């Protein structure tokens, strides 16, 4: 399977895994499927919490798929595509269940959005992160409210402007990661214990914790159409396509 979203329920935990061949970057179909899977699993009474993770031992998620961005030629398609990120984050926020995210390696752009959409986030010390959108000629507009909620406006705008990687240690100090491990084995051992404990907790208490944690984010729904339009229109510029081609080349020869 080249691109997939899979889910299984183990011990009252819905484990959702996504994967794509290019650093787990996200095409539109995977975004749509991920959003739907999170909502479907969240609606199941037996599910106490949701674990979102990605395939492999390298990058957690490289954000928007370059190949899909290069193929987009008109506003309707780009609006639909960036709307997919809004749907995933909205699903994480509104699914009614605690969402835990497992970050095993570097993450950029929309992948940082997914880490910030978590209620609790595990990572390894190699899980540096960056808002690289400006390199393409766009910005972290759709994921912005979710990132700002974790790190504050000043740090968000600094990350969006410089597009530099911050370390996992930085991400822990700035409330994105809640647990940082030396390696994947150590992270998974901690995660398993954490999820087992979560599964034994009161469903009603967890639901209320989810509710109060996201209080004050109701306006995200109203923000989204304009935020989607920002990325969706900028990506149509010729310079954005040239930028993506040169990033792909830089990554290929590095
Ligand atoms: C949500 C909004 C916007 C966005 O999300 S914009 C997307 C931003 N993403 C990037 O800028 C990703 C750039 N990629 C990297 O920095 C690195 O690849 C990585 C993610 C840190 C992973 O590094 P690693 O060393 O593990 O892997 P490689 O660099 O060797 O990459 C392997 C392979 O994957 C290809 N690739 C990387 N990123 C993407 C991508 N986004 N789409 C497609 N393909 C990607 C890379 O080119 C390599 O391919 P090869 O063929 O093997 O060369 C907007 C909003 O919020 O509004």
UniProtKB/TrEMBL annotation:
Keywords: Lyase. Belongs to the enoyl-CoA hydratase/isomerase family. It comes from Chryseobacterium shigense. It is an enzyme of class 4 (lyase). This is Methylglutaconyl-CoA hydratase. InterPro entries: ClpP/crotonase-like_dom_sf (IPR029045), Enoyl-CoA_hydra/iso (IPR001753), Enoyl-CoA_Hydratase/Isomerase (IPR051683). Its EC number is 4.2.1.18. The keyword Lyase applies. GO terms for molecular function: methylglutaconyl-CoA hydratase activity. The keyword Lyase applies.
């Amino acid at each position: 399977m080249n691109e997939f979203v899979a889910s299984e329920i183990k011990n009252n935990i819905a484990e959702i895994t996504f994967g794509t061949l290019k650093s787990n970057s996200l095409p539109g179909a995977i975004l749509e499927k991920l959003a739907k899977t999170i909502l479907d699993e969240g609606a199941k009474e037996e599910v106490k919490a949701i674990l979102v993770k990605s395939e492999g031992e390298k990058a957690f998620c490289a954000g928007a798929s370059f190949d899909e961005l290069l193929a987009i030629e008109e506003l309707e398609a780009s609006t639909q595509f960036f709307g997919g990120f809004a749907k995933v984050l909205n699903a994480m926020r509104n699914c009614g269940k605690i969402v835990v995210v497992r970050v095993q390696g570097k993450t950029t752009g929309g992948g940082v959005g997914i880490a910030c959409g978590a209620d609790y986030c595990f990572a390894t010390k190699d899980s540096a992160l960056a808002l690289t959108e400006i390199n393409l000629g766009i910005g972290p507009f759709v994921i912005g409210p979710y990132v700002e909620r974790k790190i504050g406006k000043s740090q968000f705008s600094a990350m969006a402007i410089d597009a530099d990687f911050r370390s996992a240690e930085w991400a822990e100090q700035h409330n994105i990661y809640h647990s940082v491990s030396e390696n994947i084995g150590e992270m998974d051992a901690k995660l398993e214990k954490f999820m087992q404990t979560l599964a034994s907790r009161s469903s009603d208490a967890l639901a209320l914790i989810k509710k109060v944690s996201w209080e004050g984010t109701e306006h995200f729904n109203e923000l989204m159409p304009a935020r989607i339009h920002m990325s969706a229109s900028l990506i149509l510029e010729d310079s954005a396509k040239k930028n993506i081609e040169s990033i792909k080349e830089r990554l290929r020869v590095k």
